[in-house]
Predict the 3D structure of the following.
Amino acid sequence: MISLKPEVIFENNFLKVTNTLLAGFVAVLILIVFSFILRKNLKEKQPLKIQLLMEIIFEKVYNFWQETTGIKNIKIFAFCFSFFIYILISNWLGIFPGFGSIYLKHHEEKIHLLRTAYSDLNMALALALISVGAINLIALSKKSFHYFRRFLNPIGVLEIISEFSKIISFSFRLFGNIFAGEVLILTISFLMAFLAPLPFLFLEIFVGFVQALIFFALTSVFLRVALSEH
């Protein structure tokens, strides 16, 4: 049974680790290991096929992003694209065979060791805060204190409300879709455990990709608006 609240797998006076937080750390670890392996095998004269594929994807996405946002800064692009990669890995990790099949005993209760990171509203809210906070910091660094003019005019209150609405929109959209998918897969697996869940697994792969893409796209668009002169 899936609960709305994530299960705590470890806690003491200073630290509380939930199964969704642990899954988030696993996704980060996968990205770090993959990055080190890819960086170690980078070649200029005779690049590997995986290197060529990654370079083509990165270049195509960067060119599209640059044309869409009008921002010519590869560091800002890397920041926005990191959301896509991290959310995509986290979402797909949650439907990986065996991911939710590991249990442990905690306070006389049997709980999942790992659970899809963004089936937890707290995790989605934390990512939304990072996105919106970073957008404002980047805009402040580029426009200096002139950036605060948008909050000091007659409709400044609406601008402030807009920033909070972005956080709510980001977090609830990501959480709602991932949690609903997790419940759907569990329900179908319980009713018909063999071939029936397969179409829904493919659907969740697509939904996981779309949610990562939406988060990346909205972060980019909001950043473009924040950096605009009007």
Summary: Residues 8-227 form one domain. The radius of gyration is 20 Å. The chain is about 65% helix and 5% strand. Residues 46 and 105 are 51 Å apart (CA to CA).
